[in-house]
C-alpha cells in the first residue's frame, strides 16, 4: 500500500466552462482534485453541473464534447471508464455480445477467451440471456443500463466515473449493482453522481456538495459533510439519508380520496405486441377514476410495453375500453426516455405546443407556461433547447408538457428517475392534487416509497404477465411486494380480482 503522498492526483484547477451559444460561464473558477483510491460522491441540486464536471474530469469535455473551457491546470487520468446517465449513448455495436467483445478486443484478449468473459461481465450485472447474441435495440431501458455497466466493467478501468448508474434499475438490480461494484472496486478510484442516496453513501468516503450555481459548498469526509450541511441539504432539496422519512412526516395528509366508483379503464383478454411477439398480457382488469396505480416489476418485465399498449403506441389485441369522451386527448403519456417526447427547440415552446395546436388564447397559454416553468424549476432554462437540458430537467419538462392540458388520465413511465429530492416531492404533491380532483394516475415506478405511500393499487408484471393486482390499504402485519421487497410494518396489500 503506498502512502497518500505517493498516490497519483488528478483534477481541475480554476475551471470555467461555456456551453455553446451561452454567454455566461458555468463554474466560477472551480477547483476539484482527487487522489488514487478515493471514493467520492458529488451531491447537488438538479442542473448544478455534476454531469458536466464528470465529463471534464474524464477529458470527454472538450475532446469528445467540444466546449469552450478554461482551466489553470487539468490533470486527466488515462485508464478510466464512464457510465453515462443515458445508456443509449454508451453502445458501439448493435448486439449485446459484440458490444462487450469490442471492449475485450481493445484489451487484446484472445478470441477463444471471449465467450466466457462476456458471460462473466453479463452475470456481474444480472443479465442472463440464453444466447447473448441479442439486439441491444430490443432491450428494455433497465436492461440497457445493466449492459452499459457490464461494458464498462469489461474495460477493467482504474478509475470509474459513474453518472447515476442505477437510475433505471429495479430495486434488486440496484442492490446487485452496488454489490458487483463492491467486488471489483477495491483499489479503484470512483467518482459518483447518484440521486439514490441510501446505498451509495455506504460506499463512498468523501462527499462534495454543490450549490445551485455550481460552486462547491463543502467537501470532506461523508459523516461530517452530511451532519454539518443537513440544513443546506434540506433547503436545497438534495437527497440525504432520511429525506423520505422527513418528507412523509411533514406531508399534509391529503383528505380522504373521493370514491368516484366510475370505471375509467376496462381490459379484457388484452395483450400488447412488440415486433410481432406478445410482450405483455392482462386477462381482466378494471380501474376506477381517481386511482393511483403503481406498475412494478423487474427490468424487462413488460411495464413500458403495457403503458405503450394502453396509449395505442404499440399493436394490441383484446379489449381496452377507456370510459372517456375523447380518449386520444384525455389520456396523457410520458415516455421512459424524455427525448422521445420533444418536438420543438425551446423549453417554453415545448410547454406551449399542445395548447397552441388547440388554438387556446395566447394569454392563457402564457399564464400556463409561466406556472409550469415555476412549478417544475425550469424558468432559468426556458429559452434552452430541450436536448441541452440536464437529465433531471429533461425528465421534468416531459412530465410538465403532459400536465399542460390537465388530462383525465396520466400514463407515466418512471417520472421521478434522476430527480433531486425537492423536485421529486413537488411532483408527487402535484400528482396528489390532481388525483384529489379525479385524475387517474397509472405510473411505472421502481421507487418503493412511492408505491408504499402514494399508490392506491399495485400491479406487478412479471415476464409479460400480470401476476398481482393488489389494492393498497393500511392494516396490520407486513407483506411482500415485487422484487422481494418487504412492505413496512403496518401496511398490507389486499388482493383484488
Ligand atoms: N449543451 C448545453 N447547452 C446549454 N446548457 C447546457 C448544456 N448542457 C447542460 N447545460 C446546462 O448546464 C447545467 C448543468 O447540467 P448538468 O447535466 O451538468 O447538471 P446535473 O447537476 O448533472 O443535473 P441533473 O441532476 O438534473 O442530472 C444545466 O442547467 C443544463 O441546463
Ligand atoms: N424496441 C424493442 N423491440 C423489441 N423488443 C423490445 C423493445 N423494447 C423492449 N423490448 C422487449 O420487451 C420486453 C419488455 O420490455 P419493457 O420495456 O416493456 O420492460 P420494462 O418492464 O418496462 O423494463 P424496465 O424496467 O427495464 O424499463 C423485454 O423483453 C424487452 O427485451
TrEMBL record:
The protein's Enzyme Commission number: 3.6.3.-
Please name the GO terms that the record assigns under molecular function.
ATP binding; hydrolase activity
Asked whether the UniProt record includes Protein biosynthesis among its keywords, one would answer: no
Q: Which UniProt keywords apply?
A: ATP-binding, Cell membrane, Hydrolase, Membrane, Nucleotide-binding, Translocase, Transport
The primary location reported for this protein is: membrane
Which family, according to UniProt? Belongs to the ABC transporter superfamily.
Q: What is this protein called?
A: Energy-coupling factor transport system ATP-binding protein
Organism of derivation: Sporolactobacillus spathodeae
Amino acid at each position: 500500500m503506498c502512502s497518500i503522498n505517493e498516490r497519483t492526483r488528478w483534477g481541475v484547477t480554476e475551471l470555467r466552462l461555456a456551453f455553446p451559444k451561452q454567454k455566461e460561464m458555468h463554474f466560477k473558477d472551480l477547483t476539484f482534485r482527487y487522489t488514487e483510491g478515493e471514493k467520492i460522491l458529488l451531491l447537488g441540486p438538479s442542473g448544478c453541473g455534476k454531469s458536466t464536471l464528470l465529463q471534464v474530469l474524464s477529458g470527454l469535455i472538450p475532446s469528445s464534447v467540444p466546449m469552450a473551457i478554461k482551466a489553470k491546470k487539468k490533470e486527466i487520468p488515462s485508464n478510466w471508464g464512464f457510465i453515462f446517465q443515458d445508456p443509449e449513448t454508451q453502445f458501439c455495436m448493435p448486439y449485446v455480445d459484440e458490444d462487450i467483445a469490442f471492449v475485450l478486443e481493445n484489451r487484446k484478449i484472445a478470441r477463444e477467451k471471449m465467450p466466457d468473459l462476456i458471460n462473466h461481465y453479463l452475470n456481474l450485472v444480472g443479465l442472463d440471456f440464453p444466447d447473448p447474441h441479442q439486439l441491444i435495440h430490443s432491450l428494455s431501458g433497465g436492461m440497457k443500463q445493466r449492459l452499459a455497466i457490464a461494458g464498462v466493467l469489461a474495460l477493467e478501468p482504474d478509475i470509474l466515473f459513474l453518472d447515476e448508474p442505477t437510475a433505471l434499475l429495479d430495486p434488486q438490480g440496484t442492490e446487485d449493482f452496488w454489490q458487483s461494484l463492491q467486488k471489483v472496486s477495491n483499489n479503484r478510484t470512483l467518482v459518483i453522481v447518484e440521486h439514490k442516496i441510501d446505498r451509495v453513501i455506504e460506499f463512498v468516503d468523501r462527499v462534495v456538495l454543490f450549490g445551485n450555481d455550481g460552486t462547491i459548498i463543502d467537501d470532506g469526509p461523508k459523516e461530517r459533510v452530511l451532519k454539518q450541511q443537513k440544513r443546506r441539504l434540506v433547503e436545497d432539496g438534495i437527497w440525504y439519508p432520511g429525506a423520505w422519512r422527513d418528507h412523509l412526516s411533514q406531508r399534509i395528509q391529503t383528505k380522504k380520496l373521493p370514491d368516484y366508483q366510475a370505471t375509467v379503464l376496462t381490459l379484457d383478454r388484452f395483450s400488447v405486441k412488440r415486433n410481432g411477439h406478445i410482450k405483455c398480457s392482462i386477462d381482466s382488469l378494471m380501474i376506477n377514476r381517481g386511482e393511483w396505480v403503481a406498475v412494478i416489476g423487474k427490468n424487462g418485465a413488460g411495464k413500458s410495453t403495457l403503458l405503450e399498449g394502453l396509449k395505442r403506441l404499440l399493436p394490441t389485441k383484446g379489449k381496452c375500453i377507456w370510459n372517456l369522451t375523447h380518449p386520444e386527448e384525455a389520456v396523457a403519456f410520458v415516455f421512459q426516455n424524455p427525448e422521445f417526447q420533444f418536438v420543438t427547440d425551446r423549453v417554453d415552446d415545448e410547454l406551449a405546443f399542445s395548447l397552441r395546436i388547440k388554438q387556446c388564447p395566447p394569454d392563457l397559454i402564457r399564464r400556463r407556461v409561466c406556472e409550469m416553468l415555476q412549478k417544475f424549476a425550469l424558468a432559468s432554462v426556458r429559452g434552452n433547447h430541450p436536448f441541452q437540458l440536464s437529465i433531471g430537467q429533461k425528465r421534468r419538462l416531459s412530465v410538465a408538457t403532459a400536465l399542460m392540458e390537465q388530462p383525465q388520465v396520466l400514463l407515466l413511465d418512471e417520472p421521478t428517475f434522476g430527480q433531486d429530492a425537492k423536485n421529486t416531492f413537488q411532483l408527487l404533491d402535484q400528482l396528489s392534487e390532481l388525483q384529489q380532483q379525479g385524475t387517474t394516475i397509472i405510473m411505472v415506478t421502481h421507487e418503493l416509497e412511492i408505491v408504499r405511500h402514494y399508490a392506491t393499487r399495485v400491479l406487478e408484471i412479471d415476464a409479460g404477465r400480470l401476476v398481482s393486482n393488489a389494492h393498497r390499504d393500511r392494516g396490520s402485519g407486513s407483506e411482500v411486494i415485487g422484487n422481494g421487497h418487504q412492505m413496512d410494518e403496518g401496511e398490507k396489500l389486499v388482493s383484488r380480482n
